[in-house]
Amino acid sequence: MAPVDTHSLLGISCPSAHLCVAVDSAGGIVGTADPTGGSAAWHLSSVDSPNRLTAISCASESLCVAVDDAGNAFASSAPLGGPATWSASNVDSSQSASRALNAVSCVPAGLCVAVDNAGYVLVGAFSLQRDGGDGEGRPQRISSNDFTIRRTTVRCNGRIALSLQAPGPGAFAASATATLLPRAEAGHKSPKHHSAACNARHRGSGAATRKDHRPNFAYGAGSAAAGSAGAVRLTIAPRPAALRALGRSGQLRVLIAITFTPDGGSPETKHKAAAISVVAAHQR
């Protein structure tokens, strides 16, 4: 039996008895429409040289996705059609260097999940977009918007610090809406020591304005950019009117709306509730 490739084969996927596709250590993809036809039935295409293709998943005969050691994903709707039929996307990189993708698994609907050497799980989707004129389909990557709210910390100056996990490059935007609680309901007590008091307690006094008596009002907003998949910090700065209301009431209930818009994808919004007190900062 003769080899089908001169380099190490690192992964293979066979979605049917009429298609098997493998990847090698030199960025090559070798496939066949006749897996039992011997070495002559396999055809090699150089797709990702000099990178190492580490894994491949073919969810169907019209969708194969391969990943490499430089954070790239390659998708094709015609995996035996040669290098031109594979579309590349960088899906996993940090600010300093790209991460190596070690494995990938896809389902026929187009959802793919990959893992890398830094312990990250990346989720993405591919849709089959028709090219004009020839009727051929080409997979187009759909950026994931499934982010995670890891922690919410309320600072003594009234700022809200959000610890977020981005699935990939994109932009975060957050806005907080507050509900003013009467002093009796908030159970506010003056702190015994000055060091225990939040800075917001000293921001103004006097009669509440008409705006302060509204059931809900804008507390503040913030934004942050994600250059790649990973941790992102976002801070919501309170408006002066919100700090004055906090100083009078002693406590606010806040609902935070956080939206992540991935590069080239659709936005996703999640919500988080928090309590803001002039007595002490706390975490949710």
Cα gyration radius (Å): 27 Å
**Class from secondary-structure proportions:** mainly beta
Strand order of the biggest β-sheet = 13-14-17-16-15-18-19
Counted beta strands: 19
Sum up the overall morphology in one term.
elongated
Percent of residues in β-strands: over 45%
Q: Please state the average pLDDT score.
A: 81
List the helices and strands and how they pair.
Layout (H helix, E strand, L loop, with lengths): L8 E8 L2 E6 L3 E5 L10 E4 L6 E8 L2 E6 L3 E5 L10 E4 L10 E6 L4 E6 L4 E10 L6 E6 L5 E7 L5 E7 L3 E11 L2 H4 L29 E11 L3 E9 L1 H10 L1 E12 L5 E10 L7
Antiparallel strand pairs: 1-2, 2-3, 3-4, 5-6, 6-7, 7-8, 9-10, 10-11, 11-12, 13-14, 14-17, 15-16, 15-18, 16-17, 18-19
What attributes does this structure have?
disordered C terminus, 284 residues, seven-stranded antiparallel sheet, mainly beta, four-stranded antiparallel sheet, 2 helices, 19 strands
What does this structure look like?
- The chain is mainly β and about 280 residues long.
- It contains 2 helices and 19 strands.
- It has helices spanning about 185, 240-250, and strands spanning about 10-15, 20-25, 30, 45, 55-60, 65-70, 70-75, 85-90, 100-105, 110-115, 120-130, 135-140, 150-155, 160-165, 170-180, 215-225, 230-240, 250-260, 270-275.
- The strands form 4 sheets. A 7-stranded antiparallel sheet has the order 13-14-17-16-15-18-19. Strands 1-2-3-4 form a 4-stranded antiparallel sheet, with no helix packed on it.
- The longest helix has 10 residues, at about 240-250.
- Mean pLDDT is about 80; it is low at about 130-135, about 185-215 and about 280-284.
